[in-house]
Structures are given as C-alpha cells and as structure tokens.
Amino acid sequence: MTDPLPVPGFFNPARVGEIWTVPYAERASQALDWGKTLGLKPAATDSVRVALLGIDLQNTFCVPGGELFVAGRSGMGAVEDSARICRFIYQNLHRITRIFLTMDTHKAMQIFHPIYWVDEQGSHPAPLTVLSVEDVKRGKWRVNPAVVNNVASDRNLAELQRQAEHYVETLAKGGKYPLIIWPYHAMLGGVGHAIVSAVEEAAFFHTIARASQTGFEIKGDNPLTENYSVLRPEVLEGPFGPIAEKNTRFLQTLLSYDVVAIVGQAKSHCVAWTIDDLLTEMTARDPALVRKVYLIEDCTSPVVVPGVVDFTAQADAAFARFAGAGMHLVKSDQPIGSWPGVHPGGA
Question: What's the pTM value of the predicted model, to 2 decimals?
Fold first, then answer.
C-alpha cells in the first residue's frame, strides 16, 4: 500500500469553508468500496496505533462569518487548515487508528460571555474586553445578579462575586491568559457548535472505511471557568471548594496510543493549552512519552483580529517550546509513515 493514499474524488477543498449536510448513506457505501479497493484493514489490527486529535474543528471557529472564526494572519487560516486536515485524513486513512474531535460547548451564561458581567450602569462588557484582577476587585465589572440562580444555585451574589475575584487572581498567578470576554460562540444546539462539514465528512469516512468510531470530547460547559484545554479547565478550585476537575479519562486514552497527532483551532488558545497540559502530564509520568506527540503545524492557526489582538507570536513561541521539550513538528504533506520515530508498518 502506497504512502500517501489517493484522495476520494468527492472531496472538494473549495467547500471546506461552507456548512452543508454530509450525505451519510452515500459516503458510507463509498467508504466500504474504498476500503476494499485499497485493501484497508480494520483499525483494531494496527501494529502502530495512531490517534489523530482534532481540537475544536467547529463552524464557530472554522467557517468565515462564524462567531470566532480563526482567521490567522492570512485572513482565511482555519479554512486553509481544514482543507489540509481533510486531505491528511484521506491520505493517511490506513495509518490513523482513531480520530478524536473535541467540541467547545457553551451556553449563554458563562463567565467569559458578556451577560455574566455588568458595570455600575448595568451594561455588559463588549466582546474582547479583558477583565483584569483590578477591574473585578474594584468593581468596574461585577457579576450580573440576573445570572446567579442560573449558574450557581447554591451560591448568593456576594459569594459568586468572591468566586469571580478568586478566579481572575488564580489566572494571573498561574500564568494563564487573563479573563477575556468572548462573543457568544459554540452555543450548544446551534449551528456554530457542529463540526465543520468537510471535516465531519472525512471523519465519518474514516469511521466506515477503518471500522473505527470517531470519538467526541465535550469541553467548556462549566459556567464558572474557561476550558481552553480538553484535558482540564483553566481553574479547578474556587474559594469554597472544587469547581471543576481534570479529564483524566481522556488523558489515559491518549496515552494508550503509540502516536498522538494534533491539529485544530486555535493554535494560540485551545490547541496550545491542550498541548501544554499534555506535556505536563506526560513529563510527570515519563519524559520519554512526549516523543509520541506530533504537532501538524500547518493545520492550526492563531487568533488574529486585525487592529485588536494578534496571538501569532505567543502561539509560535508555545510550539517552539513544545518542540524543545521533545515533541515533533511535522507538516500535513508528510505521510505518517515517514515521520521521525514512526515505524512504517501499521494497517
């Protein structure tokens, strides 16, 4: 079997920035035929087990006009990334044992959305407002009394305000990004929450062709903390006790694979923090584990809002640090079988 595999004729890179319904029955039939034609084996027989982790490849981030479209400096970053991700999946169908897709999942009343906060006039902060420790402690921004019973029925307003102060202080002490008010995005039940159509199609095709169920990991639905990383929320403890916990189950799942390849959005936020947490957990167990991680650097883009914020430098610095720790930086046009340290065997 050659590396890379051909790309199915139905794949249209010009449509990766659009939202449409995957023709499941047709793609399932094609995937079965594709598997027979190429001699694909069930993923359970892989001698080298490869996990592809796709972080937050959702319409809200990956489709132009999405609430938090990740434009990167090119202006079309996430669209260009999605095209490469799809092609990578098809060309490495025989190498990828299982695909895991994380899904940022939100409701309106969460600590990083406008409605959670008010100023003295009762107005909400505009999207991309940074709430500093001083802003919260001095009362420039306060918890909105209207959200209290919706997000923490066991706390009163004063307690939730204390929780908010503790939260921003913990972010600052932990070297995390400060609390940023994001536009309403990845709303549970909304179109923005869904996986971008072309990527969903590629993952579904892989599921049928390799008899390997796509895994989905929900994150970000805790109203009291941000959750950039799929492995843990930004803050675990509040002033009154635990508010969240690590995703140790999924961590153990990733550690069980021989290769963990990572793509997704955004390079500066959810991707970077997930990798950072993975590095921390791997190093604590066995520093050699980091060698199994491969960052496909042309399949992820940073948050860039021209004239407002540009996280490119922070994202690049994070990836340089990950590489320095022993993780591999690769490109999507490099077949998995050619990656350093990966035995060319497998499916």
Answer: 0.96
